[in-house]
Every structure is written in structure tokens, then in C-alpha cells.
Amino acid sequence: MGENAVTTVTLGTQDYRTRVISRSHEFYVDEPGDLNGGDTAQDPYETLLGALGACKAITVRMYAQRKGWDLQEVRLDLAHSRPNGRGNPEQIDVSISFIGDLDEDQRKRLKEIANACPVQKTITGELSVNSILEE
Fold it and tell me: How far apart are CA 18 and CA 45, in angstroms?
């Protein structure tokens, strides 16, 4: 997982459809139709949930491989909500399951490892976003 990740995001004239490029990879983000988007891709929160879920799954797989554990599959279902309506606090619920020949102690340990993934640490840590206006 890149320490100095650089991503370029471009929004042209096609409503809210946004192009995202990282290294040699490209994908799109859009808003759903009920928010006047074209619903041509996942929305920004779905992208965030995907990044968090992927990081958790990858971190768990790396750990299980190092331990030689029989982890066949990791499944995470993530949901973003605002329990008090539109404002703060916000919450992400993650339902996680492991497929493989694992005992209860291994499953508990993998859950702990999932909660230690770098993206979760970034989201829940002291994150600052510094927007710089380019000329």
C-alpha cells in the first residue's frame, strides 16, 4: 500500500461523472440519479467504503498467509450512515466473514488485524486535508 499515493481527479462537463487516475489505473465516480448524477459509476462514499473494505481484506490476507492459516475468502459488507440525520457523527458499519478452516481464536485475531489496516488508521486518525489552489 503506497505511502505517497498520488491520484488525479478530473471533472469535465458531463454533470458529475469524474475520472480518477492512480498510476496506470483509471476508474470513474458519479452521483446517483436522485442527486442529479448520471448513475454511471459508484458514488464517492461507495468508493470510500470500497477502499476501506479492500484494505481490510488485503491486510487480513497478508497476515493469514504469513501465519500459514487456511483463509479461503474474506467478505466484508460496509455501510455508511449518519445516525443523527444529515450531520455528525457519521458511522461505518462493517460486517466481516472469513471462509476457511479457521478456529474461533484465528477468526477473532483476523478481525483485530482487519481493524488495524492502514486506511482505517488514516480515516480514524488525525487526518488533515490541505487544498492548494493551482494557478
Answer: 14
Q: How far is CA 74 from CA 8, 25, 30, 34, in A?
A: 30, 24, 27, 32
For cell 444529515, name the residue.
86
Q: pLDDT in tens for each of the 135 residues of the chain?
A: 556 778 999 998 778 999 999 999 999 999 999 988 899 999 999 999 999 999 999 999 999 999 999 999 999 999 999 888 777 888 999 999 999 999 999 999 999 999 999 999 999 999 999 999 988
- Of the candidates 69, 49, 70, which has an alpha carbon nearest to the alpha carbon of residue 123? 49
Same domain, 79 and 110: yes
pTM of the model: 0.89
Closest to 81 measured CA to CA, from 96, 70, 67, 92: 92
Grid coordinates representing 51 are: 477502499
Give the integer Cα–Cα distance in Å for 134 and 132: 6
Q: What is the number of structural domains in the chain? A: 2
Q: Domain span at residue 123?
A: 43-128
